[in-house]
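Per-residue structure
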Amino acid sequence: MGRSLLNRRHPFVDSRVWVLFEISTRNTPYPSDKGTASLKSTNRLGELWIDYITLGWFAIINLLKQSITGLDMKDFYKKFQIVSKFPLWPSYLRQVYKKAIVDALALGIGSLQNRASFTCLLCGVSGEITANEFIKFALKLHPKCKIMVIDLGEPQVNSVKQLVAEKFSEADIEIRRANALNLDFIQNNSIDWIDTDGFFSFFDKDQLVALFKEWKRILRKDGFITFRELTSDNVLSISANKFRDRVSRVYINTKLHLHTFEELKKDFATLQFKYARHHSPIPFLERYCLLNE
């Protein structure tokens, strides 16, 4: 198969499954939500599906391992390292960040390089590995950009501060421990891009609307939001979401709030966000882009 991420067989994937996925994903069309900007299909995305499915398998297997061996699972930062330290996690992030900008351009944000200034916000960060990929991508996108990283968890914030001190000391980066529902330290109409990943399940319906309103306040007129979220829309996605909730209850003692696409779409319309919705490399995890009109 000869691709950079597929040069080796994954030990938990049977060779017959490998071949079936290679055949079934070759030349797979890249679907988009009806009425939104469509993107060209790519062989590359289809070929990466097996890797990202495996990423999910490894996360589940490692969760079970930690449960059996009784490892310390007291905080989210340590727990999420099960995923973030898996070799494919940075690759996943690079893919979705690139697609996020493609989606935003398709919605009509115009050239980012022509903006005199560019400020982006990573809202919620699992730790230094995610922050490292986001910061590198943002600096390539706009070398003189201002980057803000917030999280409610102290270990996550401290890990990002250390990363920035070691690798990005000359960049304009602000890291804060903050609640995303209260961003009063950010001025109105000052942010170009907000990104987050799997964030909404920590908010109930009313809190999610409040979050969108707060993001709307800080976004510039042509600012945009990109995120990936698993919504409950059919039997498979509902089952996947329920399984995710069960894992969360067991391993991080947190009940997730499971949202539907129809619920999100209603919120987008209420707050006058133009949106695009597409598949992400991970099955059932949809990627979204919202444009502030």
